[in-house]
Amino acid sequence: MLEKVNNTLPILLKWFFICVLIGFFSGSASAFFLVSLEWVTQIRVQNSWIIWLLPIGGLGIGLGYHYYGTTVVKGNNLLLEEYDQPQRVIPLKMAPFVLLGTLITHLFGGSAGREGTAVQMGGAIADQFKVIFNLDNYERRTLIIMGISAGFASIFGTPMAGAIFAIEVLYCSKINFKSVILSFVVAFIAHFTVEFWAVKHTHYNIPEVPVWNGSILLWCLLASVLFGLAAMTFSRTTHFWGRLFSKNISYPPLRPVIGGAILALAIYFLEVQKFVGLGVPVIVDAFTNPSENYDFLLKILFTGFTLGCGFKGGEVTPLFFVGATLGSAMSLFIPLPIALLAGMGFVAVFSGATHTPIACTAMGIELFGLESAFYIALACGIAYLASGSVGIYSSQNSKGTKYHLYQRFKRKNLKDF
């Protein structure tokens, strides 16, 4: 027994040390990113003319990735591919490339998020420890989980959701128990690292949660299906613009130049400044004031176009925007509190677009409190089922619960036919 303990203790210490390193470095990277993002956002807000530089910013991003970043241009999809079929260590340069590309996108007025940036930075940082600690490919999968967990947890201030997201987005059945434990440990370390650097996250509130009854259940089901359809629209729109630019513009650096010029013209002449950048003020306002019924559609259009033409950034905060404004707009005909509908949409659209209903439920509870847990869980589950098989990550293995339900449904229909 003593010999077994002596053999196990060094392994535990090694992995705890790795957790501390990944959590600290990923959390510090996220803290720096959040501060930098706020800085460039303020510059853009105070200098509206800067949108005319979008094509130049796009050219810089395009040239950088085309000539120096081809090995990391796949972004989040590279993390998913390397987890599923390990080939080689993810280059550390993924972190500065995506950081700089995202800051340029936000500085000049592109519509994008921040989750993808934090996750890529976390994944790239974590994967370097394969060489440092001489780990095999099986253990390397654990590193990738830890990197995703640390990046997600630190950028949103939701360690529970970050840990579960890393596990769920990579398809739970391929993940061992050790990876689950380490995902949670590194998520909390990364989260507290951001707090250590005194960087604040946005807070949301659902002050009123009604008592359940049959009528409320039906309204919640309707809203959740609509959230799922919005998630499907977001995913398909983003992929559509990406295919369109790839098919018609063979030289990659030219895609964000042309896309940036079109975006700048649209933003200036249509006066749609609230749809550029993260859109956090609009999300916060959606919890108290009904949004316009077209806000969520325009955010889908601008974000899909921005990312599709080659600018960098995440999709999750725009998904929050889409869900919160859609839920807020629905409060005009659905008899539920506006903050509850906005909160349900906030996480439900995210759930449908990433195939991660458990992580999104955990995020909703962390952000909005336990009182709304049942509403949040229902919205995330139904939106996940209603969003179809296509998500925002093209390399994601989606053969989970929904996949098997669809397969069973197809077989039954073909048999009946």
Describe it.
- The chain is mainly alpha-helical and 417 residues long.
- The protein has two domains: 2-196, Orthogonal Bundle (Clc chloride channel); 214-401, Clc chloride channel.
- The protein is built from 18 helices and no strands.
- The longest helix has 45 residues, at 2-46.
- The chain is globular, with a radius of gyration of 21 Å.
- The N and C termini lie far apart (62 Å).
- The relative contact order is 0.14.
- The model has no long low-confidence stretch (mean pLDDT 92).
What is Rg?
A: 21 Å
Total number of domains: 2
Termini Cα gap:
62 Å
Helicity level, as a percent range? over 70%
Please, how many helices? 18
What is the string of SSEs from the N terminus onward?
HHHHHHHHHHHHHHHHHH
Oligomer: single chain
Strands, total number: 0
Mean pLDDT across every amino acid position? 92
- The CATH topology name of the largest domain reads Clc chloride channel
Structural class by helix and strand composition: mainly alpha
